[in-house]
Design brief:
Layout lengths: L1 H24 L1 H26 L4 H31 L4 H20 L10 H6 L4 H30 L5 H8 L4 H40 L4 H11 L5 H17 L3 H27 L7 H15 L1 H18 L6 H7 L3
Helix pairs in contact: 2-3, 2-6, 2-13, 3-9, 7-8, 8-9, 8-11, 8-13, 9-10, 10-11, 12-13, 13-14
Length: 342
């Protein structure tokens, strides 16, 4: 018995790294699949309602396609408006950045005895050797990979909604063998993750709106861009809120000359994040989503290492999924308890 147990542990130690290596290598399949799983959960209640009133499945899928096209069109319009804000900005902003950057870099240059021609442009001095062709190639690859991932995700969404790829049956065949139990667990996963995504979307939306309004009130340039950035990056639990505050605070430091106004603005955006992410989000999610802070940070770092930024966004839904499945087995309940905040 002891030798068998030792053999199983050794096999587990060997298999786990191989599984994660496969997840990393085949990220172009798994990332869209996981995104599609969570997106399809949003439309499953609608699909069931349409099915109850005897609407043919192809018409239901057509309706969802129209809804998705509307969301994509609306998102494109918002991105276009924020892009126009940046493109239509005058040269005053670049001059402000140059002045503030000079004030910051001059003491550093003196300390390290770095020589720079007097009155020469800081950016030209440090970035003139930058290879523009490499940056263009990186941008092109990023756009190509993002487009490919987006189209693959949409393809998986319709496969899941059309039940050509039935996750409940896959769960029944691989993880939970009893049919009744697998249905029960799948419905709980659907309910909990749906609740999580709805709350996260609403909180992120109001955070973005709060940032946009504060930028308008304090006269910060590109309010739509900062609101959109806050909305998107807020989907990365904990880390996203810190990044958006730091970035916007640094930009406000360039634009606002009065120290009191700058402090008040930074305090205001921190207050928005505290109210939305620190108070309202835990209240709406309830105790069922009380995941340990250390577990959240570890999962963000781990999935960020495996899949990059998409992995950081998916880390919490995946953690919730693991936590729910781990609760179903006596041998894995310890994992669920370690992830839980209770």
């Amino acid at each position: 018995m002891n030798s068998r147990k030792t053999t199983n542990i050794l096999l587990l130690i060997i298999v786990i790294p191989i599984v994660f290596y496969i997840l990393q290598v085949l990220s172009f399949i798994f990332i869209p699949l996981f995104f599609a799983m969570f997106i399809s959960l949003l439309f499953l209640p609608l699909m069931r309602k349409l099915n109850k009133i005897k609407i043919p499945k192809f018409l239901s899928l057509l309706l969802i396609a129209i809804i998705l096209l509307f969301i994509i069109k609306l998102s494109g319009d918002i991105i276009q408006l924020s892009s126009k804000e940046i493109l239509n900005s005058n040269g005053d902003l670049l001059q402000k950045i140059e002045i503030k950057a000079n004030k910051l870099f001059l003491p550093i240059e003196k300390f390290f005895n770095i020589e720079r021609v007097e009155d020469s442009s800081l950016f030209l001095h440090y970035f003139q050797k930058m290879d523009i062709t490499k940056n263009f190639a990186f941008t092109f690859d990023f756009i190509r990979n993002t487009t490919s991932m987006f189209l693959t995700t949409i393809f998986f969404v319709f496969l899941l909604l059309a039940e050509s790829l039935n996750m409940q049956k896959i769960m029944n065949l691989t993880i939970i063998r009893q049919k009744f139990s697998s249905i029960k667990v799948f419905l709980r996963i659907e309910k909990d993750l749906l609740k999580f995504m709805r709350v996260k979307f609403i909180i992120s939306l109001f955070t973005g709106l709060g940032f946009t309004m504060l930028c308008y009130v304090f006269g910060i340039s590109f309010p739509l861009f900062w609101g959109l950035l806050a909305f998107i990056i807020n989907f990365i639990q904990m880390v996203g809120s810190i990044i958006s505050v730091v970035f916007l605070s640094a930009f406000a430091f360039i634009e606002l000359n009065t120290t009191g106004t700058l402090v008040f603005f930074i305090s205001s955006i921190i207050l928005v994040q505290v109210i939305m992410g620190g108070i309202l989000e835990p209240v709406f999610l309830g105790k069922s989503f009380s995941i340990n802070v250390i577990a959240i940070l570890l999962m963000i770092m781990f999935w960020g290492f495996i899949w990059g930024i998409p992995g950081m966004i998916l880390s919490i839904p995946i953690t919730v999924l693991i936590k729910i499945i781990a609760e179903q087995f006596i041998s894995t309940k310890l994992i669920s308890k370690l992830l839980s905040n209770n």
